[in-house]
Q: What sequence folds into this?
């Protein structure tokens, strides 16, 4: 098996994104967390952000009253992006930001277990998705919550994978042309719906915006997928029960909130 040619940096994209983060983006990210986990649920909890990316959700956990937030990412530029938001928040002492890999067992063993383990759109980009999922399951405290999203699998997977490989193999101009074609399709779709086509770069859920979401999609290698049934069977084998699911169409990210059973001792 040949190694993927990866020319895209999630961290570079996130660093560009955080330069424009405003209060509305943070408000939307906080609302997203409370929509998924419940209002007030984060208060007093220990939170682990696996693959923190821009850091906007780590920041939101801090603002929602988490007792501790620990953020790590494999990409040094993503670590830098998260640190920028931490600095803007005046460096809360209970928020730790560090480099780390979800595939590094020695690193993970040093972390302990957390009340909330969060990993949005990360584990399918590690090159060893099921190992990464198993590793994050081990980081959840008894009775704790795991909230992850994973790309939904289906028959379109080879086509999507080929598109990502073309993007990573393209020149800088080639990448811009692929992005421009996607943006043009969005503009035409808006026009057909009698919406302003020039307002295509909308703020979307979770504090993201359309442009950075497009770049994230094209560049995202490695790229693996899973069906909801596959994820739920795997989670049950490790002592987790489903609390909430948001099933996406193929190529989108399905979200899962899973609760770890409380371990009983004799």
A:
């Amino acid at each position: 098996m040949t190694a993927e040619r990866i020319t895209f940096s999630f961290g570079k994209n996130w660093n560009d994104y955080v330069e424009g983060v405003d209060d509305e983006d943070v408000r939307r990210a906080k609302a997203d967390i409370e929509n998924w986990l419940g209002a007030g649920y984060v208060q007093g909890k220990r939170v682990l952000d696996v693959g923190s990316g821009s850091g906007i959700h780590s920041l939101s956990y801090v603002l929602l009253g988490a007792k501790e937030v620990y953020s790590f990412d494999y990409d040094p530029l993503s670590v830098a992006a998260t640190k920028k938001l931490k600095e803007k928040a005046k460096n809360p002492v209970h928020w730790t930001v560090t480099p780390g890999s979800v595939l590094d067992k020695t690193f993970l063993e040093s972390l302990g277990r957390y009340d909330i383990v969060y990993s949005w759109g990360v584990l399918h980009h590690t090159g060893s998705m099921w190992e990464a999922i198993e590793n994050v399951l081990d980081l959840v405290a008894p009775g704790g919550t795991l909230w992850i999203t994973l790309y939904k699998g289906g028959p379109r997977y080879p086509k999507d994978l080929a598109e990502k490989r073309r993007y990573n193999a393209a020149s800088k101009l080639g990448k811009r042309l692929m992005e421009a074609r996607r943006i043009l399709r969005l503009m035409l779709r808006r026009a057909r719906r009698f919406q302003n086509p020039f307002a295509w770069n909308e703020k979307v859920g979770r504090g993201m915006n359309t442009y950075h979401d497009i770049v994230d999609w094209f560049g995202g290698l490695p790229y693996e997928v899973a069906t909801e049934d596959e994820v739920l069977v795997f989670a049950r084998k490790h002592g987790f029960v489903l609390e909430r699911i948001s099933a996406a169409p193929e190529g989108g990210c399905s979200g899962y909130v899973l609760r770890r059973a409380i371990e009983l001792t004799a």
